[in-house]
Amino acid sequence: MRVLDISNGIAGSYCSSLLAEYGAEVIKIEPPVTGDPTRAIGPFPAQMPDPETSGLFIHLNANKKGITLNLQSESGATLFKELTKESDIVIESFEPGYLDSFGLGYQSLESINPALVLTSITPFGQTGPFRDYRASDIGIFAMSGRMYVHGVDTDSPLAYGPDVIWYQVGATAAAATMSAIFSSFAYGIGQQLDISCLETLTGNVDNRLLFFEYTGELTPRTRWPGGLPQGAYPCADGYVIFGVGYDRYFKRLCQAMEMPWIYSDPRWANYSARTNNSEAFEMLFLEWLLKRTRDEIFRTCQSNRVMCAPLLSFEELIQDDQLSTRGFFYAIHHPTVGHHTTMGPPFMLSNTPAKNKEPSPLLGQHNSVIYGQLGYTELQLSQFRTAGIV
Q1: Are 316 and 332 in contact (CB under 8 A)?
Q2: Whether pLDDT at 362 is above 60
Q3: Which of 3, 186, 205, 284 could make a disulfide contact with 26, Cβ separation 3.0–4.6 Å?
Q4: What InterPro entries does the record tag this protein with (predicted)?
């Protein structure tokens, strides 16, 4: 399966990265000279920007081949059409109508390759009053309603950390692309996929949205009533996270604390009672937590089937036993950066495991190979480079 990735940014690159992890031949197509915008985003070794050492680009584009191509030129558009004839999937993230202006829209590509799947990723989708608008990740987070319910009513709304949304969109696009390619392989008929970032995040449903849909009532921007304890709590060496909530879990927590009498106390004996008496319980709870480390609390609670987790730093995360055992983090060698740690896909397949990582391509690294497969000579490629086509 051959994939042409002409997207720019994180979402499209992550989509094609997931496909590349499991065996697809992915060709990352970048503008000549400047390359993909993520090449300008760090981290960089020694904080020295270099398009060949961007940690973000290297992470997103392992296992891919890389070529350069100016899609805005007439010759570049012709070359892209030739590549499309021999490909199964094209992934793009331009504004609606952009590719049409170069004769590279879906109808044009479909006439060349009727089985082609075109995955189009935009902030708001190919249709609707906002189709031509641009958006940042925090803008999508705000418009999806997710920011409305994050934080507390007495302060400003809170957002996710940077870029989280784009990875969610990329994973959604990869799943949709695989659904479409099954249809293409079975019936020889392709289609365009309309991936909306706004709809992706809105579709990752917050329970409070469901609450409003069913009741028409707005839930305040606070933690869930009765969900006690819930959230981050300090302990002897950091923080631990709890999501206890229901009565049966609260009873198990009392057993883990070796204080079963708490559950028998009328102040905390049920879901609603704990809501009205939360401060008194949390004083007891904090006293218990502050005498114990994260690991002690985590293992004690998990052995009692209580949902609890330690709050880890990135340094601790890379050394985490669970992720290390599963090989999620591992070393890879890049020709410019050298050895560095990277991460694998967020899922495993039992019969077709992810392949060992090949480093991300240097800018235009595979021009000779890919264009050579189309019959172009080194002399012609040299002429293309001089003309700014590749």
Answers
A1: no
A2: yes
A3: 3
A4: CoA-transferase_III_domain (IPR050483), CoA-Trfase_fam_III (IPR003673), CoA-Trfase_III_dom3_sf (IPR044855), CoA-Trfase_III_dom_1_sf (IPR023606)
Q: Is 335 exposed, middle or buried (0-12, 13-18, 19+ CB in 10 A)?
A: exposed
**Nearest of 134, 193, 129, 202 to residue 165 by alpha carbon:** 202
102-116: pLDDT as tens digits: 999 999 999 999 999
Domains, the chain, with CATH or none? 2-203+326-386 (3.40.50.10540), 230-313 (3.30.1540.10)
Q: Which amino acid is at 266?
A: P
pLDDT at 46: 86
Residue 339: strand pairing partners = 333
301-342 confidence digits (pLDDT tens):
999 999 999 999 999 999 999 999 999 998 889 999 999 888
Residue with token string 């082609």: 116
The C-alpha atoms of residue 36 and residue 79 are separated, in whole angstroms, by 19
Helix then strand then coil, in percent of the chain rounded to 5, is: 45, 15, 45
**Dihedral in degrees, nearest 10, Cα atoms 212, 215, 221, 225:** -140
Would you give the DSSP letter of residue 96?
T
- CB under 8 A, 24+ apart: contacts of 274-281: 274/226, 274/228, 274/250, 275/225, 275/226, 275/228, 278/228, 281/228, 281/229
- Please state the separation of Cα 179 from the chain's center in Å: 18
Element of type H or E holding 81: helix 74-85
Report whether 266 contacts 334 (CB < 8 A).
no
Please state the length of the chain: 390
pLDDT of 154 reads: 78
Question: Contact at 8 Å (CB) between 135 and 93?
Answer: no
